[in-house]
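Mods, move this if it's the wrong board.
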Amino acid sequence: MTSYIISRVSISDSNAMRDYMADAPESVYAYGGKYLVRTGDIEALEGEAAYERVVVVEFPDKEKALAWYNSEDYRELRDLRWRSADAHIICVPAEAG
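Not the wrong board. Structure tokens:
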């Protein structure tokens, strides 16, 4: 079943995040992922949007999504993101019961 990784990101080092954003797509595509949303253009309709960026990536299934997130291909990029931003990241299925 299609799954999504959804990230809300607060950036502390914009230069490092620029590098991350330039290099991350290659690792996403390698695991069958596709960006649906990748933006800093956020308008809060309810509550507070206390972050600068939202990213939604679609994967063929949860296994591929988690394989990407935990992969050696992504590890260095994830470490870079950890040093340059705080994020709230979840993995959800396309259909929920």
